[in-house]
Protein 1
Amino acid sequence: MIIQSQEISLKHLLTVESLTDEEVMGLIRRAAQFKNGARSILNKPQYFVANLFFENSTRTHKSFEVAEKKLGLEVIEFDASTSSVQKGETLYDTILTMSALGVDAVVIRHSAENYYHELVESKSIQCSIINGGDGSGQHPSQCLLDLMTIYEEFGYFDGLKVAIVGDITHSRVAKSNMQLLKRLGAQIYFSGPKEWYDSAFEVYGHYLPLDELVSKVDVMMMLRVQHERHHEVGKTNFSKEEYHQTYGLTEQRAKQMKPSAIIMHPAPVNRDVELADSLVEGMQSRIVQQMTNGVYMRMAILEAVLNGKA
Amino acid sequence: MIIQSQEISLKHLLTVESLTDEEVMGLIRRAAQFKNGARSILNKPQYFVANLFFENSTRTHKSFEVAEKKLGLEVIEFDASTSSVQKGETLYDTILTMSALGVDAVVIRHSAENYYHELVESKSIQCSIINGGDGSGQHPSQCLLDLMTIYEEFGYFDGLKVAIVGDITHSRVAKSNMQLLKRLGAQIYFSGPKEWYDSAFEVYGHYLPLDELVSKVDVMMMLRVQHERHHEVGKTNFSKEEYHQTYGLTEQRAKQMKPSAIIMHPAPVNRDVELADSLVEGMQSRIVQQMTNGVYMRMAILEAVLNGKA
Amino acid sequence: MIIQSQEISLKHLLTVESLTDEEVMGLIRRAAQFKNGARSILNKPQYFVANLFFENSTRTHKSFEVAEKKLGLEVIEFDASTSSVQKGETLYDTILTMSALGVDAVVIRHSAENYYHELVESKSIQCSIINGGDGSGQHPSQCLLDLMTIYEEFGYFDGLKVAIVGDITHSRVAKSNMQLLKRLGAQIYFSGPKEWYDSAFEVYGHYLPLDELVSKVDVMMMLRVQHERHHEVGKTNFSKEEYHQTYGLTEQRAKQMKPSAIIMHPAPVNRDVELADSLVEGMQSRIVQQMTNGVYMRMAILEAVLNGKA
């Protein structure tokens, strides 16, 4: 079945806040069509997309790559460690090069928050920018695949009770999700270590102790303890076992969940830390589906951005 | 000329012992067809294969990649050094991710012997596993391309005299080859340093001094001195020159070979160690053909595994 | 519009001196055709090209990769750091492997000057070699894209005044360019630090102080200060600011340029060293076009080399 590509058209995808509700729902619907076998009809026979991951990644990187190949795009992989970045070339000049080589869109993950500002303001750079994660900033494609997974499960957002648990301060996923879910009508709860919580989150939802929250919500969104970002703020003070018992979804706590509730995690999971090992591939987990949906959501994003160039 | 894809269908390819004689001969015939220009007819228009090489490799890695592209498959390259493996993600969770992203088959080289057990037992992992080498364990695709090269040369295995010479204990190729060649009727001889020989090999063949053996056999299969694995067991006690003179195929020894006999080596060759430099690309060497045949054998393996998914 | 592939046919591309004037002009014309949308008609349905960059590169590497994909070639990327080079495999044996795997052409960048001699003399290696830069030797594809950019601008070489400014001794681009431009009738001038100038260049042109030269020439070809090569000869003695003021194209000096003159640089540019930051993307700069033209020139080169195999 061939379905005409939808009307969604984006110049870049930098943050989720910049998307309208219609665009969010349009992307979710389009991703679901791709999941059901729809094919994309792009305007040009050949598009080039470059993946520039300056931070380690398996899921996001390979998910974009599979999405690009499913769309029939030409994929250019960029490895900073063997590039002119080693000669001191800046991100700006690297992307200017990609643009000059005829690359239509770039997917970038970079440790610098808001790295994209100077790129989108440049008159010389013609590439569309898709943000694959900026520092502790945003991670829009992860947010959208999370929403797709929730919508696929429940069919609505309004009044849905979603818990976001764990290392919220360092999570780019958490920030995107709380904003968008709130806007779409969901009710947000937070839990986890108080030192990883910020009063700025109060506008989106309320902090509750984990044991109070677990029986109440439809979605348990567990966040990864990001050991790789904690060197900035001193070592984590919890042992794995302590974290698991105090802030993790133990087997015991999982039994308190509603039967219809689902478990989500952006992965990679620290098994037996955020989540008991046995729950990761369990009946209520949607962690594998999140990864699968990620491919289809990224197809929708890429299509929308390439439509924006026509 | 388009030839219908053969009936061989495999769920995984982990070891050669698990293959029947019919499967081995079927793969050899299919690889020969590919070498003669046959094209594959696969069931689906798009398959994804990921190559995960956790150990350094040129030949095996690039040979699989060429084979995949000759079959028209979508290839996902995985680089552990820029992946979430750096955040502590396990092999299991990496392959679970590949599976969730829709990857049909993965080619894995890993230093851990039998790394594949937990992968094939998982209910969540849907990928077929093709073993590209596990520690000092097995290397089935290398074994099969060796058999293909021998069969291409002689047209039979029964009664063929094959010498396996060198670092047998550390060689995953040697172990696969001795088992399969014996099963197919060949007569096996061993030579090389006694400290790299094991009495467990006696069931497959007998140890002979190199000078006694060289004039007798049809195939001189020289093994690579694997400096990279010897750190485990203390440094090699031979100088290069000593090794070459005592256990290597010198120009002098090569003159004792039957005119119809061939020289094989899995490569990379340590020139003037296992083999005199001048012999590597000489008339009796089949080392270049082994590499060429490797592409066609891997096409046959990939096709059989993808057939197994239909 | 489909245009029959031109008659240019090369066995290898190692240096620019080995090209006739007709071949140079033929490649420039063919590249211009590709830029205008011409498609290549190659003899075989599937060609394999491998990119082996043993030195860091963004532009040249990714430019070849885009060119290969625009031509519909199968691209094999080689990463020395995860290859058997780590086990001590030589360049010769690596390329012999590529040849055995059926790779039709290899693009190589390597730090050893004239690395290609032993490769093209081998009877076992069947691959065509495209030199992507050898040490401080040659960089033929960069030279050709520079010529294309100049020809696109002016439509002739005869009598054109071209300045080559900066680190001439270490620049493989400069040496290729001075030879070919001189042969095609251009008048060459040199400037930059005297310690980076060599009397051997006198046969191609003359050294002039920068301020004398800047108002005179049609092309200001600024060379990169190659910090990465200077460890061999002791640290550079200039601060960035000193270099810029003394040998760089400052905003002030740029005002002395003819209105029709253009600025070129092989990039990556050290902004505010060789060139004022504001000039890089300015009206007279052709630096972005050089990168764009590089893709089309490399298409022409690849086509000529693959034609040479038919």
Protein 2
Amino acid sequence: MSIRKISGGVCAARGFKAAGVPAKIKYEGRNDVALVVADAPCAAAAVFTTNAVAAAPVLYDRVVVKGGKVQAILANSGCANACTGEAGYKDAELSALATAGELGISPKHVLVASTGVIGRRLPMDRLLAGMKDAAGKLARSEEAGLAAEKAVMTTDTKPKQAAVQTKIGGKTVTVGGMCKGSGMIEPNMATMLGFITTDAAVTPAMLRRALKLAIAVSFNHVVVDGDESTNDSVFLLASGAAGNAVIDKAGADFDAFVEALTAVGVALAKQMAADGEGATKYVEVRVKNAKTQRDADRAARAIAKSPLAKTSWFGKDPNWGRVLAAAGYSGAQVVDRKAEVFYGKAWAYRKGQVADAAQLAKLEKEMQGPELVVTVDLHLGTYESTIFTCDFSLDYVHINADYTT
Amino acid sequence: MSIRKISGGVCAARGFKAAGVPAKIKYEGRNDVALVVADAPCAAAAVFTTNAVAAAPVLYDRVVVKGGKVQAILANSGCANACTGEAGYKDAELSALATAGELGISPKHVLVASTGVIGRRLPMDRLLAGMKDAAGKLARSEEAGLAAEKAVMTTDTKPKQAAVQTKIGGKTVTVGGMCKGSGMIEPNMATMLGFITTDAAVTPAMLRRALKLAIAVSFNHVVVDGDESTNDSVFLLASGAAGNAVIDKAGADFDAFVEALTAVGVALAKQMAADGEGATKYVEVRVKNAKTQRDADRAARAIAKSPLAKTSWFGKDPNWGRVLAAAGYSGAQVVDRKAEVFYGKAWAYRKGQVADAAQLAKLEKEMQGPELVVTVDLHLGTYESTIFTCDFSLDYVHINADYTT
């Protein structure tokens, strides 16, 4: 299967329009209401936060998505509509109904998504005015996709989009998406707000299965701070406009689709990690040759979550002891006399041997750049796991001490 | 049972001497080698890190403590003697043997403890010179106890000691201790370096049981950054000098002893949390009325570990949404419409109701001081849990980005 990266986001696949507008939900002069709209009802799948405190839009969407068909998503930043009780649920429902009315589509086919401060009611007048404004600006262009992406950003410093093309049954299929990430990212099932569209023809059941597989190695492998939010959601809409034979079972077509979807998921996941709150460095943690898959995942995740390891990356300090200690308390089998730790291509610790001055100089060089690969080779088996993460900087504390209530 | 707080640390109980001296293990002009020595072999118990990457002194001590008798502990800061392989194990063994020789006691009764940088060999010449120096300065005084405590501190900014007295079978029993904490604190069984002495007469078996009970609600309820170290150890030595009838089974005497031991453990635990790396605020997280004990523990721990909650405490921001969200992803049952969140005595969130401007003013007032109690009332059952923790400040990042390799 050959996958080709292309530019664009939610408008890359045929059959989708988007818009993003400023509606003063929280701040002046920035986009904060987005619409993603399909030409016709699409097969749809979604994965939501496993947090017991789920936001109103998540509670609402869980019901909608069970129907398997979606035509529009209304999203806003600046207000999470979480911990807002019955009234908040009604706000979510009302915004979906109003969107359906404005677009002339079935209210059963509209999802809503919110991100921002917890415990505040949605400013419904401004949200609905923004939705109407966005509906009038819907377009099938890269600019429209980017405007929608900008409207879902919170503390994100960069827009995050990715798109790929592949061939399925002789037809060119496109998968594209956008997401917001930044803080509160420790995906466990779902993670953040993600919107992926495709023109592949896929049944809702196979779409759910594909999304689960792709998320398992992309969004679910991003760690910023270990906090899982109340609003995390990833949506996947398939228009079928590519004209491929409907994917309704496992097989080569399904595998090709999952591969393309995973490529988009991983590209978005890496962008999220690199733009983690206050991040100065994108870090990829790779645990190799673990005894079991669970050991590999646990060790990699523990390293990526360790504040001590993360601050050492920020300080450009090859403190491999913290990395190995995190693997050690993860629950994974670790035998320190067999293990190795690398920063980039340079080893820091090798089966009991510790870096000397010459090796330390190499290590410090590896830590200077904006990207760092930290590898732990456990030499106990054949399993591996990669986590996409970032360092922990002074700015993380600044951002989160000052973010408002 | 009435428990009375008294001053002092490891020398508070009868039968123990201590000393702390500077030996240039890592830095100039500060104590870094300590001895705690009993007049005769004591009943002993210890709890060690569960980290799979355990330091050489931990591996060595596990064997020694199985004998149930200990007379001396040699401790150093500046070098953890972790990930140092066979050679590091021999260093630990040799320092215990040398200490026994210097003190004229059995080498089977000597424990060793190290804290500091991982992956460096102990500077044996300086360590042994320091040990001899300390042996010559052993004294039964508060000053000697404090000198020993200062020698085990790393990034600790304050010495941590606590002592209490109680009556057991008509005799006055004293329990006293010292500890080092600061970073890398997420106790799971053991936590940091803790040294507790008592003049109670207790069998090794009952001492182990008492230590386990006391640690479960004290050291194991401290969270600073969620990292469990390679060296965490808590030692408990009982001289029997109080002259009480030997505690060799469960009953009133055992309960009284556990109560006194727990009081010392909790006092040390709170000091550790308050002096967490970079902490500007001591925070006590209380989860009340959880459905199960496990739910209460999980929710309190998740809140105490959440970087988002911790940075909001640093920023004096009553961001209860992050607190409730952390409870939500902890795995505990949480129903946000039934829950309440308090900062000090002021409520921030009450069963769907959110603080208005007047209430926010009260909340901001509660967050100004050096101590903060964050309470989450789940209203789902009768179980509760308290975690001792601190905020997450800019200085945490400074300290850990700059701490050396």
